[in-house]
Amino acid sequence: MFVVGWVGSALASCAATCACHACGFASQELVRRSARLAYCVLFTLALVEAWVLRDYAQPLMEKLPWILRHETERSTEAFYGQQAVYRVSIGNAAFFGLMALTMLGVRYKNDKRDLYLQHGGWLVKVGLWLLFNALPFFLPVGVVNSYGWLARIGSGCFLCMQILMLLDFVVHWNDTWVDMDDVRYLYALLAITVTAFLGTAGIVAVLFYFFNPSGPDCSFNITMIVFTILIGLLLTGVSMSTYATNGSIFPASIFTVYCTYLCYSAMVAEPHDDACNSLGHRLNAASATTLALGMGLALLSVVYSALRAGSNTALFNLGVSLGITEGDEDESEGDRPLLDAEEKGEADTTSTSAGLDGASKAAARPGAYTATTAEENVPVTYNYSFFHLVFALASMYIAMLMTGWGTNPQERDLIDVGWTSVWVKLVTQWATALTYVWMLVAPAVFPDRDFSH
């Protein structure tokens, strides 16, 4: 029995060791192939941390004397939750902001910051991220409250980026499928267009049903719903008019359904005890699992938006895109800062004499990569600095999302509820519609300008 136990213990130790090595190898492979995904994991962890602390931070915050000095609000759970969310947001905005500053000017793969900062040094970066998450809890309340106003501005910038990202995506989608030499793509665009308009009609029906209950005066909701219908008609009409030389019914249908969804999202964000929000009453009666699932989906959409916006640097023309489009991924050729021995040998045997001369010169420089000239001139696949800037702004947006834009306490298992959230969504709807209309009419208003880029 002793031998059997010893063998079992040895096998268990070996299995645990193998599992650790496998996890370590998997994490290294993940980081090597896509650093963006690794940063996304850090952002998601911060998001979950803010969510948990918002609802359960009071016992911890009550032990911090510089917070207890604020006698006016200190007895409310909402005050502690808001303070915790702000502090997590400060730490992550500072971390990603510092990374954005550090990565300014990285254009090519042979920049050492690509190897040691963007794709490497993860032990140091994770330690720095943990430090940045802890230090804001030592800040006084006044400083944290002032950050709340800065976060409002940063959140507005993040929402504007989402609008531009959607505009670029839809227009690129339409142009790509129209240029396809296959009639099936045109039929697919037609089917999606019809589906989008049918979806718009369905959302409008839901809006009238749930946000105009019989009895109370819900004129505000009715006005916003009717205004949303008019926005859809405007977008479609301008797209089909002669003024829009680059107009198309497909983008109009997508933006119409999106603007209608924003109206729905605004109505849902009304306080759940409001008489005109009958859907909110039903959500209050839903199970905690259902509410948590809805909240999780909302937060995942923020993570996805931040990831895609940060990768789409060509759209914002910050001067470092170098002709690289959004579709390029981290795992593209040249993403690895250094080649392994075999690949170096193949590169050396197949390179031209000019490439060999360039490699010799590169090797002669202190600290330069021992790679061919072609490898030295490989541009980065996205703007590292802009990528981190987007995540810094997304960190600010999370603070606003979880605190009702800092104006009212949020109920547990609920986010982005309150009249401030309602108006933010409605303003976002108007900004989306105006941006799309301007894209259509700008070439006619300024015929001498080139809008092709």
UniProtKB/TrEMBL annotation:
GO terms for cellular component: membrane. Residues 327-359 are annotated as: Disordered. Pfam families: Serinc. It comes from the Eukaryota. Keywords: Membrane, Signal, Transmembrane, Transmembrane helix. The keyword Transmembrane applies. Residues 334-347 have a biased composition (Basic and acidic residues). PANTHER family: SERINE INCORPORATOR (PTHR10383), SERINE INCORPORATOR, ISOFORM F (PTHR10383:SF9). This is Serine incorporator.
